[in-house]
């Protein structure tokens, strides 16, 4: 019982990594297709990133630089915990800087900074099946994918419009990959969907509990489902980030007091810090010198 | 000013220190030893071994203690350890007919070869709190001899007359699956289903089994036999050309006998549901056997009309480590998605208010 504490590099044994890499290769070869894999029981709970962690563990090498985010932030508790896990079991270099990372594991966001060739984005996926809430049976949904039978999804989106005047899906918004498979982008806000399209980075999706891996290889078409008269559109925010003044980024709403006081700040903490380091300042940070600096820019 | 609400490494470390403190409790009391947990909370240890699919009482006891008595947490800890263990091979099927029986009861026969053996059961105890336990009074030695008798299986008695289906075989050429090493796919064959049920949550299986008794997929069950005792585990070593014994494990086996009308191809015959669980857990073994039988709809051309008969429903939701992870993950931050929903609701509210204001104006105009 005393020699328990020896684990392989990146926790998983090499045989398991090979099995997962085979699944990843298959996923890359068939973009958007959900490849079943023999998901292992990980030392963190199901639903907390076990799929993403297994994908990352299988592709991680000693020279990689890892970034882990949850809700766009590096300092959310689960991101801290997963990053610490890889530091412990792989002694890997970590960063919070998007551009310095070779592998970024994420839950619920795509970084604001455009990803580059050679980078890999690993998504944690709770429910990989985009048709799950229309048809709970795996046996049925696999058939629907095989036959490219996606009418049900369009009916659902249409019903939204008929009932609400809008497509009421705001996150995990379904996309079609390379004109073939309808895919769940994981519960990212639909704001991030356009970033997936023709991305230079490799995008890998791991669902541990549901035992599925899927992928979007670099330079792949990713189109959000919509209708001609109701085109897909992303969320717009009225104000820029209160800390760094960024526009066209995804913002978190922060409640300031019990009198309805609110502020909106970048969900991507690295992006926000980077901008502030470069002298950008939002309303809540603004100091006279910086304001004049901004005005001068 | 903006206060960071996001947790950091320090917060996590402090939380874990507090957890360790609460786990230890009052320092003036002696801490529980692993041996005490194994000896005195044996059924908790058994459940953890069963649902973690790892037979090791000391490690299971350690997990129970580490989890502060939270069974599912203990099962989770032991599973996460099991997953890292190398595989040397797959054992031969255990032969429960050679079990050293400590308890054996049958509801289908008044008396039978080997007799009814009550063993260490809660049955027929009056569930009255026992103050003598507080005083830790001396406990009398048991009357019965050491377990060690081999007794005939009830299913073999019925089998002699051809009145019951056999032990069941997988189709020719079928390679036995391993639920922990292959992706789950449906429809799932019975070997994998039984693996999933054996490690499935006791409470979930109990509820499903109960539902079949109340008419949701009724199977007309009789307990042919429940037996508890030790069986030998053997591993076949190709290098040696024979099987070697790895040791004894305690298991609970339940053979449920169920009604079945014959078909054109088969004479009328009783069918069976099967349960086999590590340690002593009659509740789990019986529940498992009821659910196993309920799931065999395709073999008997039965309509799927109830949850317990639906293998995707049962197997996908029986694993408590998966279930607790996913249910509890809801407490992780979801504010990015919530923000998206908030934005949409606000927009729809504005449109609703605007439409209503427009409607009121229209009404006024019409009245004027
Ligand atoms: Zn910002």
From TrEMBL, chain B:
Biological processes per GO annotation: organic phosphonate metabolic process
Keywords: Lyase, Plasmid
Any Pfam family the entry gives: PhnI
GO molecular function, one term: lyase activity
Top-level taxon: Bacteria
Protein name per UniProt: Carbon-phosphorus lyase complex subunit PhnI
């Amino acid at each position: 019982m005393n020699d328990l504490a020896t684990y392989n590099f990146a926790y998983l044994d090499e045989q398991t990594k090979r099995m997962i890499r085979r699944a990843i290769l298959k996923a890359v070869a068939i973009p958007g297709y959900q490849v079943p894999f023999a998901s292992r029981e990980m030392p963190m709970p199901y639903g907390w990133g076990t799929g993403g962690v297994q994908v990352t563990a299988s592709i991680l090498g000693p020279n990689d630089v890892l970034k882990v985010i949850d809700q766009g932030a590096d300092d959310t508790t689960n991101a801290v915990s997963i990053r610490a896990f890889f530091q412990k079991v792989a002694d890997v270099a970590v960063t919070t800087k998007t551009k310095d990372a070779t592998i970024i594991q994420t839950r619920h966001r795509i970084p604001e900074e455009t990803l580059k060739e050679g980078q890999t984005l690993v998504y944690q996926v709770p429910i990989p099946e985009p048709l799950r809430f229309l048809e709970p049976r795996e046996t049925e949904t696999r058939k629907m994918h095989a036959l490219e039978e996606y009418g049900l999804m369009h009916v659902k989106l249409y019903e939204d419009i008929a009932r609400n005047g809008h497509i009421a899906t705001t996150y995990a918004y379904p996309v079609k990959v390379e004109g073939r498979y309808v895919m769940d982008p994981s519960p990212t806000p639909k704001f991030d969907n356009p970033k997936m399209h023709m991305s230079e980075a490799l995008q890998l999706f791991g669902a541990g509990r549901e035992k599925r891996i899927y992928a979007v290889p670099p330079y792949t078409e990713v189109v959000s489902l919509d209708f001609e008269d109701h085109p897909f559109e992303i969320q717009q925010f009225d104000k820029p980030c209160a800390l760094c003044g960024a526009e066209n980024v995804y913002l978190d709403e922060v409640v300031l007091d019990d009198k309805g006081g609110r502020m909106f700040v970048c969900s991507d903490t690295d992006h926000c810090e980077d901008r502030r380091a470069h002298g950008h300042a939002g309303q809540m940070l603004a100091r006279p010198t910086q304001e004049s600096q901004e005005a001068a820019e | 000013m903006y206060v960071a609400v996001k947790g950091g490494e320090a917060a996590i470390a402090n939380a874990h220190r507090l957890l360790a403190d609460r786990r230890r409790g009052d320092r003036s009391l002696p801490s529980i030893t692993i041996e005490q947990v194994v000896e005195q909370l044996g059924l908790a240890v058994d459940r953890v071994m069963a649902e973690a699919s790892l037979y090791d009482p000391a490690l299971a006891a350690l997990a129970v203690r580490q989890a502060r008595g939270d069974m599912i947490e203990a099962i989770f800890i032991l599973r996460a350890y099991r997953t890292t263990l190398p595989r040397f091979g797959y054992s031969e099927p255990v032969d429960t007919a050679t079990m050293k029986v400590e308890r054996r009861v049958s509801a289908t026969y008044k008396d039978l070869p080997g007799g009814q053996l009550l063993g260490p059961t809660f049955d027929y105890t009056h569930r009255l709190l026992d103050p003598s336990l507080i005083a830790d009074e001396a406990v009398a030695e048991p009357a019965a001899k050491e377990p060690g008798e081999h007794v005939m299986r009830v299913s073999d008695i019925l089998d002699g007359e051809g009145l019951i289906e056999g032990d069941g075989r997988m189709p020719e050429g079928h390679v036995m699956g391993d639920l922990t090493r292959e992706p789950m796919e449906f429809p799932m064959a019975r070997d994998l289903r039984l693996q999933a049920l054996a490690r499935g949550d006791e409470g979930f299986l109990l509820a499903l089994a109960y539902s079949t008794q109340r008419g949701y997929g009724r199977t007309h069950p009789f307990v042919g036999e429940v037996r508890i005792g030790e069986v030998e585990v053997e591993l076949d070593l190709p290098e040696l050309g024979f099987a070697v014994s790895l040791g004894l494990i305690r298991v609970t086996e339940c053979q449920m006998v169920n009604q079945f009308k014959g078909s054109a191809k088969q004479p009328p015959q009783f069918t069976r549901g099967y349960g086999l669980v590590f340690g002593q857990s009659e509740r789990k073994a019986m529940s498992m056997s009821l659910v196993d039988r309920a799931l065999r709809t395709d073999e008997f051309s039965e309509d799927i009309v109830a949850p317990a008969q639906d293998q995707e429903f049962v197997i996908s939701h029986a694993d408590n480590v998966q279930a607790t992870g996913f249910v509890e993950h809801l407490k992780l931050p979801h504010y990015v998605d919530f923000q998206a929903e908030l934005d949409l609701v606000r927009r729809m509210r504005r449109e609703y208010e605007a439409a209503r204001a427009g409607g009121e104006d229209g009404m006024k105009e019409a009245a004027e």
